[in-house]
Every structure is written in structure tokens, then in C-alpha cells.
Design brief:
Length: 295
């Protein structure tokens, strides 16, 4: 009996230690996961629209596509750059730039830094054949004040580059060639956009249709029925949604398979806008943004 009691005591001690170590292990695991989540949250880039700051301005906001080495028989090099500067350092600066080749996404660049005034994105890539390259950039900054007051600044920029080559010589492009190339590209894009609208049962007569490459028009001319200040807020919130739903999933991709230029749909009723886009295949996703029309 005495031996049985000793064995039972040992078993109880083992069970106690097992439960204790299990508790300690689970606690340590939870702490580790929490630390990883916190670190991920700190490192995750974000873009958020805040009311505009009248005291801070962009002194430069430029997107450039430059042909570096025209060589029809061996291809060519193109430099894609987006640069911006503010009149003072701000809490957070962020620039994003999208590059399209014949209406299909070719690249996405994003850069953010704290307590700076200047940002520069730059990439050089190889190309060949006849193409229209279009780059669209959004330049953003957060200005922080005491008592958790946050303001923001924003600017957009873009550039187009037409390249026409043949087997013998490099050719300068004229307006006629550009017009023909535009028509061919946008005819194909429109086919995809109309399919997306059909998939989502959208009536094209209810919307003004704006390709993402044409969004800069609203930087100088307000959306119909809105003031320029209201338009600026709408566009800032639009980029916030695009960044979260469209750009973040694409930033880490090295190749893009038939990712078509997004289409902005502005309701003629002035109560909402939509963005049609795709990421992994030709199936179009939809982004909804409610807006309030001025009276």
C-alpha cells in the first residue's frame, strides 16, 4: 500500500508539472503571437485621408517616363520615376506609382518615410516593340499636431510614353500614330470594362466612366456637382480605398497576369462612385464609395 501511495503521489506531481508546463508554453506562445501582430501592425504601410493642411504644400510632384537607350534591334531601356517634395518635413510621407503597358499593369512602386520632405521612386526596365506606357502616381503626406490632430496633403502626377519601332529604324511618333494606338488600346480595354459592368449588372447610362489614367483631370476641374474642395476629399478617399484593396495585394508581386487598368464609375446622381478592377484574373472586383453631392 505504501508503495502504491508513493506511485500515486509521483503521478500527481507529473500531472501537475505537465499542466504547469502546458500553461507556461501556451502563455509564451500567446505572447509571441501578440508581439508578431504588434510588429506587423507597426510595419504595415497605410494610407489615410485627413482634412487638408493649408500650411504645407508640395513644391514638386512629378512622374517621368524616359527612354534611355533606343535600339530597335536589341530592345530599349525605360526609366520610370516619381519624385515629390514638400515645403517642410512632415510626420509621414508616402508616394505610390502604377505603371501600365498598353492598359495592363506592368509595375507598382510604393515608398513611405517618416519625418522627411522628399521622396524618390525610380526603376529602370527593358522593353521591346510598340507600346504605350502610362504611369500614374499619388503623392501623400500626414501632418501631426498636438492633441492628436492630423492633417494631410495630396497631389497626383502622371506621364505617358509612346514607343514605335520597326526592324530598321527608330521612329519618332506623331499625333496620328498616337491616336491610332490609343484607339486600339482603349477598344480592348473597353471590352474588358463592359464585361465587368455586365457581370455586376451595372447600367452604363447611370455612370460617367473614367479610366484611372485620366483621374488627374479632377485635380484642376471638380467632379460635376461638387466643389474643388469636395472633389479633393473624394479623390483622397478613393486613393485610400484603392491602396487598401488594390495596391497592397499587388505591391509584392513580381509579375502580373492580365491585370487591367481600373475603371472609375461616377454616379450621375452624385451619390456614389465605383471602381472596377482585377488582381489575379480577368474577373472584375468592385470598390464602392459613398459620396454626398453639394446643393
Amino acid at each position: 500500500m505504501h508503495l502504491n501511495k508513493v506511485v500515486e503521489v509521483i503521478r500527481q506531481q507529473i500531472r501537475f508539472l505537465t499542466r504547469r508546463w502546458h500553461t507556461i508554453f501556451c502563455t509564451l506562445l500567446m505572447i509571441l503571437l501578440l508581439l508578431l501582430l504588434i510588429q506587423h501592425d507597426k510595419s504595415q504601410e497605410t494610407l489615410q485621408y485627413f482634412p487638408p493642411d493649408p500650411t504645407v504644400q508640395f513644391t514638386e510632384a512629378v512622374t517621368m517616363l524616359d527612354l534611355l537607350s533606343p535600339a530597335p534591334n536589341k530592345g530599349y531601356q525605360i526609366q520610370w520615376a516619381a519624385t515629390s517634395s514638400t515645403n517642410q518635413s512632415v510626420y509621414l510621407r508616402q508616394d505610390i506609382s502604377l505603371l501600365f503597358q498598353d492598359g495592363l499593369l506592368k509595375g507598382v512602386k510604393s515608398l513611405w518615410k517618416e519625418s522627411v520632405a522628399d521622396l524618390a521612386l525610380e526603376k529602370t526596365f527593358q522593353g521591346s516593340g510598340n507600346h504605350l506606357f502610362q504611369a500614374v502616381s499619388y503623392h501623400h503626406g500626414e501632418v501631426h499636431y498636438p492633441e492628436d490632430q492630423i492633417r494631410s496633403i495630396q497631389q497626383m502626377s502622371k506621364d505617358n510614353l509612346y514607343i514605335f519601332t520597326d526592324s530598321e529604324a527608330w521612329e519618332e511618333t506623331g499625333k496620328e500614330e498616337q491616336t491610332k494606338w490609343n484607339q486600339a488600346i482603349y477598344q480592348q480595354l473597353d471590352h474588358t470594362w463592359q464585361q465587368w459592368m455586365s457581370d455586376h449588372q451595372l447600367d452604363s447610362n447611370r455612370y460617367e466612366q473614367i479610366p484611372l489614367s485620366d483621374i488627374l483631370q479632377f485635380q484642376q476641374h471638380p467632379i460635376s456637382g461638387f466643389t474643388q474642395a469636395e472633389t479633393d476629399q473624394i479623390i483622397g478617399q478613393l486613393w485610400e480605398g484603392l491602396y487598401r484593396n488594390y495596391l497592397i495585394p499587388l505591391i509584392d508581386k513580381k509579375e502580373f497576369s492580365e491585370v487591367t487598368m481600373p475603371l472609375l464609375l461616377i454616379s450621375k446622381a452624385g451619390d456614389h462612385l465605383l471602381v472596377l478592377y482585377n488582381i489575379d484574373d480577368q474577373q472584375g472586383d468592385i470598390l464602392y464609395q459613398q459620396i454626398n453631392k453639394s446643393h
